[in-house]
Amino acid sequence: MNNPNALRLAGKTAIVTGAASGFGAGIARKFVAEGAKVWIVDIDATRGEIMAQALSMPFARLDICDWAAVRNFAGLMEHVDILVNNAGVGHTPAAAEDVEADTFDRVANVNMRGIYHLCRAFIPKMKAARKGAIVNIASTAGVRPRGGLTWYNASKGWVITATKSLAAELAPFNIRVNAINPVAGDTPLLTTFMGGDSEELRAKFLGTIPLGRFCSPEDVGGAACYLASDEAAMVTGVAIEVDGGRVL
Ligand SMILES: NC(=O)c1ccc[n+]([C@@H]2O[C@H](COP(=O)([O-])OP(=O)(O)OC[C@H]3O[C@@H](n4cnc5c(N)ncnc54)[C@H](O)[C@@H]3O)[C@@H](O)[C@H]2O)c1
User: Fold this and answer.
1) Of 51, 73, 89, 153, which is best to mutate to test ligand 1, by the most ligand atoms within 8 angstroms of its C-beta?
2) Residue 152 annotated as catalytic
3) What is the mean pLDDT of residues 147-166?
4) How far apart are CA 180 and CA 158, in angstroms?
5) Domain 13-242 carries which CATH code?
6) Which of 31, 4, 8, 33 is closest to 230 using CA atoms?
């Protein structure tokens, strides 16, 4: 019989991108509480160091858009059980045709190319070990898009499709790939999506969430822990909504 007191991620090594802030920080905190060794990965060295120190975990300053840097980082790692592709950026609400190419490129580079880089670097290690769990942070935006955020929404639809395709491709290697679709969360990204911050804007967003509150880093951490743990050994290729009923 399993030990009911066993930590759910004991003995596992995880990488969490974008772990200096918001949902990534919540995922890192939950993973550490459940016994994992967690690499805090972020482009923001100041906040990344603070998070790593608070959790007594290693920090790697990494721009996930920089393939050479990602490849060098992976070269330092012997073994990775869990990869969480969480880092992402948004753009402020605008008509699709008014979004500048620089903004489009930034969203595409971080939200799509960044995941490609991490997968390219770490899938070979997981294949060699014949085990692994990848968790991609997509969004309800990829399922139930709001107008004004078209290029961000499309990047999250891409994450969901990449997740399912990877799950099909990597199942023979005992590597599971799943996604989480959070609804709006009160992180630094929220004001980007809302195009500002006011009681009215918050009420407008909250009015679309049946449970009546924003998604928290702890909500996402709990779902990520489940998907990364052996409890989800038979779960691959899903995109779990953590959305208070938003897509119902
Ligand atoms: N907050 C929301 O409303 C919401 C809703 C659904 C999905 N999401 C998704 O959740 C994920 C986390 O978002 P968040 O709200 O916690 O945002 P956040 O801004 O609080 O955190 C994102 C982190 O990613 C890091 N980052 C950005 N670009 C990077 C790069 N090139 N390389 C490495 N790190 C980089 C940032 O420094 C930051 O620490 C994103 O993928 C986002 O799209 C957010």
Assistant:
1) 89
2) yes
3) 98
4) 13
5) 3.40.50.720
6) 8
